[in-house]
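Lecture notes, unit on protein representations.

Consider one protein chain, 414 amino acids long.
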Amino acid sequence: MKDRIPAVVFALALAGAALMPPSVAAAEPQSSPRMEKAKNYIAEEQWSRAIDVLRAASADPKERSRDEALFWLAHSLHQARDLSGAVEIIAQLERNFPASRWVKPARSLRVELAQKLRRDDVLWWTATSPLPPPPPPTPAPGAVPAPPAPGPRPPVLPHAVTPPAPPPPPTPPVPPRASRPRDVPPIPPPPPPSAWVSEFSGSDRDLRIQALGSLMRTDAPRVIPMLREIALESGSPREASRAVFVLAQSGRPDAHSTVLEVAKRGAELVSVAAVRELGRFGGPKVSDDLLQVYGTGNPRVKYQVVSSLGERAATGALLQIVQTESDRGLCDTAIVTLGQAGGRAQLQRLYTRGRAEWKRPIITGLFNARAEDELIQIADREIDDEIRREVLARLRLLGTPKAKAYLQKVQVSR
């Protein structure tokens, strides 16, 4: 079966169009009929026809979207199993249109190609090459930039005095290789051949994380600490959350323990993302891990822990939160989630033995669980008329045969 376009490549390919400001999008030229035909072939997975049309479009100086044509040509060659041709087209796109918004998704596609061809040198180059400097902060409207601080003035010397030239610094001896300290970083490996990267090639944080994800299978002990650093120290929550996602895809215990560490120590948004991924892990210990995070997290993290426990149907952990949480909103959310997790018996016991303020969220939780038997029992025993009317209203909304029969019986008894 033909490979679909990788999700990350497709997302990057559409990001430029989907996220452009309206003024920029309006200025973009409309696709030519030839490009529309090529995209139709791509949608139908007729790769050879798409390749013919896209080659003609990318070679035509009059084509308004030659850069886009080159990207889709590389993608189509990839799907047609011409991987070397796809690599060459990506290099051509970088060389001819270095500022194009299609360069980034093309580089993401190159990472995919490098993984398929087991070119770890390309992946490591992408993961470790220097990143471009961040853009300077945009000054506020009307703000006048401060002049640069003046440097120290050189001393004024008499006219006839010539300062002596400083002696050359002594050349330190080069220590032998075995005596180098351990904290000296290793010499970076040479870049891949120009067929893969050139002076126009570059990397960014998204590509770096994608490359590290590709290297996880072959070099996890080196990759996991790098992803951990991104997750805990990156100033971008989006970038850090992507690193957490890549870590969560690994079945290695050290990757899972790293996700747990990020859930406890990461910035708020990153911690929420780590809790979400942690809840998807397998194994009985995960609920205990989530409760650990709950004990140290802020309210937003705690709400995500409750949601993750609900997805895992961890009724015991949810019941523990209900019985110990003092925050009314969190407690009510845990009660409702307990119903969604299937904790019908626990909710029934809470209703009869718990606090009065728990009754309404318990009714909501039982309704969400379609717990008609438990709701009928509450309606039979509840002495508060207002709450009993609320239970009967929920039974009407359920509309099950048993609920209808009970409601008819109640109406006749009146």
